[in-house]
Predict the structure.
Amino acid sequence: MQEAQRQRGLWQWCLVGCLFAVGCGGQSDRPEMATVSGKLTLDGKPLPGYIVTFQPSTGRPSVSNMPTNAEGQFELWYTYKDKGAKVDKHKVTLAYSPTSDDEAMAAQSGNVTGNPKAIAEKYGTVAVTPLEFEVSDNTTEANIDISLN
């Protein structure tokens, strides 16, 4: 009986050791990244309330974690815990994201900065957006000025 308990304990320690070895020795699939923040403007004026997405030529996109603020500022996140964007050439898309019911009602009645419907038509998908941005290893700022003309 004592021998069986000792062997079971040995197997448990071997299992724990294997789990540590597998968990600590793996390669990360995280690509080369750069921290990126910036300002979104419409004809030079801050454009609040938009989610900014950088879609690289390959791999997962980076998304602003909150809509642009009153000054049009945004910060990109690769995952919920990793700030930044993949070093690559990106297509940039914009999506209006009201943060309150009042903002949503204002957007429906056309009382917001810009024109969310027109911006979505021109910049809302990777297929239509003309916006491109090259993120390099020393990129930190991505200021984007759009126009509806």
In short: The longest strand covers residues 88-96. The beta strands are 33-34, 37-42, 45-46, 50-56, 62-64, 73-77, 85-86, 88-96, 132-135, 144-146. The chain has one domain: 33-146. Residues 2-25 form the longest helix (24 residues).
